[in-house]
Specification:
The protein has 201 residues and is mainly alpha-helical. It has seven helices and no strands. The protein has one domain. The model has no long low-confidence stretch (mean pLDDT 77).
Amino acid sequence: SITKQVGEGAEVKATSIEDETFRDEIKNTASRWRKEITNKAQVVVLVPTGIYAFDKFFNLPDLDITFFGIGSHRYFLFHSGAAAWILKTLYEARLKKVENDKTIMTKVVNKILGVTAASGCVAIGCHLLTDVTQPKSIVFPFFGSLVSDTLIDDNIWMLGNSVYCFKVANDLYTLALGDDFKLVKNFVKENFFEPLIRIKK
């Protein structure tokens, strides 16, 4: 941490104004601070972005009620990985469009959009996974359900599409964050999951 680095830096004392070791230590410590502050700044922006996107996308599959009415709830297009595929396609198109733009602003926007799309896919996947426990069949046009008088096929549909959403989310996180993916995962683990585990204990 920065606090630890300050403590370590305080132990290094200059023997003279021209002490190269002291100057090098200052440069190295400043470089570490800059890197750590930059990393923290990225995480502070990206984690809330992901949480916000998850919240907004979680109920997206239920838009079938809005468009087609309650009788068409669980419409196959909405309760599938179609939205995840669209998000991935749009994001990849965005990256291709700006691939020659190396400005910092473009890189930041790409990361934010990527995390938004990836978190949206996670939300949709979680929604589909939750629907597996609820007794309602998938609605297909013309013929209704795939197999009558059973929900096995519907549950397989939900599970399969849920897994697909999670796979797309992983691809998008990796694509958007690159080497920072591990950084963000560790931040979430240390600041969200581990505190929750300690509270439960």
